[in-house]
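Inputs:
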Amino acid sequence: MNVPLLNVSGATRRFGGLVAVNEVSFEIGPGQVCGLIGPNGAGKSTMFDLITGVRPLSSGSIHFMGRDVTQEPAHSRSPMGMSRTFQIVRLFPGMSVLENVLMGFQPKFPDGVIRSLFGIGRLGGQERDARQRAYEILDFVGLADRAGDRIDELTLGQLRLVDIGRAMAASPRFLMLDEPAAGLNDAETNNLAEMLARLKADGLSMLLVEHDIDFIMNACDKIVVMDRGTKIADDIPARVRTNDAVIAAYIGKRAHDAQH
Amino acid sequence: MPLATKRASVWPVVAVLALGVALPFLLSGGFQLRIAMLIWIFAILSMGFNLLYGYTGQISMGQQGFYAVGAYAFALLQIKLGLSPVLAFAGAVAICAVLGLIVAYPLLRLRTHYLAMATLGFGLILNGVANRWIDFTGGTAGLTVPPLTWGGEALGRTGIYYVVLAIAGVVFLLHDFIARSHVGRALQAIRDDETAAAALGVPVRRYKLRIFVLAAAIAAVAGCCFSVVSLRVDPSLGEFHILVSMLTIAVVGGLGTRFGPLIGAAIVTILPQLLLQFGAAETLIYGAFIVLFLLFIPHGLAGLVENVRWTRKSAAPARTAATNVLEVKG
Ligand SMILES: Nc1ncnc2c1ncn2[C@@H]1O[C@H](COP(=O)(O)OP(=O)(O)OP(=O)(O)O)[C@@H](O)[C@H]1O
Ligand SMILES: [Mg+2]
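Outputs:
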């Protein structure tokens, strides 16, 4: 078999006495869409932080495209082709919607002032192309007419779409979305599902955290389930649905909630 | 593409610089020309501060220290080592860049008011050195700077003005290049959210270091220009009033804007002159003016103008084909 795109091996993260992620291992193959589910506090967002380097691991390792990136800082992982959104949208309030998406192209531009000045002849064209593509991405997520607006003029659902657009702008090999449907209305959620299906058809690998079970079941090739920091299942959607441990930890909890 | 997606143009800056070239012909007398030079010098100093604080969100209350070190180094390299003004200028800027790196390395892990206090401490130390190390710095009396010469003769006031303008023009163009480019966006990203910036590939710490060094070097440039104009450096260069002027310029002109430093520098330099006729009430009126600014124009004058495009809705554009949006790599 090919080298997996992502290999998480024995990933552990402690916050003081709390083990937020406990010896979790899983793999994602090229072109695969993987779901990551689990009850609140299971450690899903922390797992995102470990994979992207936003937080260091307490132990374990992360390999991306066969390369050990465990010690790499966040800013050098994203140029390798990892791209993510945050559960609580983290856009840049001082920039317009378009400029936020443009930030996704950052690794493609020359690094720093001096290198940029040396490349100044090509920079104009590069900036124009980036703006054109950022605009197309905004069009793709349905926000082309908001390109020049300020972030605080958008609804939560629109902010999430800008965040996803910004992550897409980096032309990632691997896109990680943390609860992308949270705050979206039904129409927006359907739209998002359609967008993700198109990205998947284009061969993009993804890791999705989502509380909407139907959304996850439809979108994913496989699903990793976590509960209180530990991986309790790693299987295709149909079998995860009927997995006893999962039902007990997660779906059971939902059923339990629904009865009340 | 609609207007909102267009990159800002360099032409307004070129127009302002052209006005700068014409200025000596429009002004009457040496006093007005001197005011014009002071405006450019304060604009240079404030552009460094604007890049550091306005764009990157890293406050430094020690810029007046670099300003003074730059001015002293420019004088001393000529007096003690006999360097030419051009070499002394390069040396002074290099010294401040290195000093900036030394200061930034330990300090930039600090944030907000901790960073403010630490950099303020740095400024105070330098000021103490300037005042007390009399053999080297001339103490409170300061040093006399040799005048610039051209063809064996001392350069006249207009000549000096053009030297200052040329230097200010380069700094202005650099400031504007950064502000309008992806580098400026990266800096703003650091200011707004360091974690998100890093996740998008911005090397946060490296950029902070670089911009601190650049701001220190720009302050040195302003200091050199001041010595060229005043022909004297003394400890007052590194004192509090320089810092206060810089902060006032930031408030009046607008932080994180392309023209804030220049607009602010013009107002902060000209306004006190206009208020002189009010005698003792001058300071009072000036202070009230600043407070009004803070209350009603918190983003400064440049902020008023430059953010217009944000409030103007872009015309609904035709939808473009979205199929080729993603270049998924293999
Ligand atoms: N910075 C932090 N400091 C201390 N504890 C933290 C921190 N971040 C997360 N935790 C804890 O780690 C555990 C896992 O949190 P995490 O946010 O990863 O869960 P999650 O699965 O994403 O939950 P949710 O579904 O609510 O988003 C929780 O108990 C949380 O309180
Ligand atoms: Mg979470």
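Remarks. Chain A has a mean pLDDT of 90. The beta strands of chain A are 6-15, 18-28, 33-37, 59-64, 67-68, 82-84, 174-178, 205-209, 222-227, 230-235.
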